[in-house]
């Protein structure tokens, strides 16, 4: 059996204590294997974004364990977690998180340069990543000179640059028109087909259809999961999406 790239084991995440405690995740277990794209769906407040944050080591679990390529995140120092995110994990955030003072190429190349790659080599990889999302010609443009959709595609290129084994995206097509959004999902699908693992949070049934499996969250609990196209259609129809 192929080793999972991402594995969550009985993960809980609680914010606060006592009567005001918010249980964002309640005993979630999930595996994503090489070549697999898993979509996560659910109503607002169901725990989808929290799931991404703990899966990538941006937030700590309250209990349970997260493993990336068999390595438990709970045993890693802050420096080790930062190195893991630079080298093996790519994030696409809802609000882009681009650095305004850096060009598109510099934003995409930044994780590679922080990891010690020369600026020349990092720019080469950044150019290739921008080409994947159709923005190679904007490599020297600053974020404030781009549309929201262009900024989103730069953020996606940054998540894909280098040898990222795990790519996680939180509503990555939110700022894009339908045609460009489909193109971005195709890039994510192709990256998974080439051996990476993908975790996609989406509200859109047509976007979830790109995935191999759909996991449905409600109140921090996995309430359903499905794999085949017919099962995905039935699940999404039943969920009202």
What does this protein look like?
The longest helix is centred in the C-terminal third of the chain and has 16 residues, at 178-193. Strands 6-7-8-3-9-10 form a six-stranded mixed beta sheet, with helices on both faces. A four-stranded antiparallel beta sheet has the order 2-1-4-5, with helices on one face. It is α/β, with parallel strands linked by helices. Helix content is 36%, strand content 25%. It contains eight helices and ten strands. It has a single domain (34-58, 81-239), classed as Rossmann fold.
What's this, in brief?
With 241 residues, the chain is of the alpha/beta class. The protein is built from eight helices and ten strands.
Estimate the global geometry from the Cα principal axes: globular
Strand proportion, as a percent range, falls in 15-25%
Question: What CATH first level would be assigned?
Answer: Alpha Beta
* CATH fold name: Rossmann fold
The strand line-up of the biggest sheet is 6-7-8-3-9-10
The total beta strand count reads 10
Radius of gyration in whole Å, from Cα?
18 Å
Q: Which CATH architecture?
A: 3-Layer(aba) Sandwich
User: For the report, how would you describe the main beta sheet?
Assistant: 6 strands, mixed
Instruction: Write the H/E string, N to C.
Output: EEEHEEHEHHHEHEHEEH
Number of contiguous helices = 8
Class based on secondary structure composition and strand pairing: alpha/beta
User: Distance between the terminal alpha carbons, to the nearest Å?
Assistant: 33 Å
CATH homologous superfamily descriptor = P-loop containing nucleotide triphosphate hydrolases
- Can you tell me the residue ranges where pLDDT is under 50 for at least 5 consecutive residues? none
The tally of domains stands at 1
Q: Please tell me the overall pLDDT.
A: 89
Proportion of helical residues: 25-40%
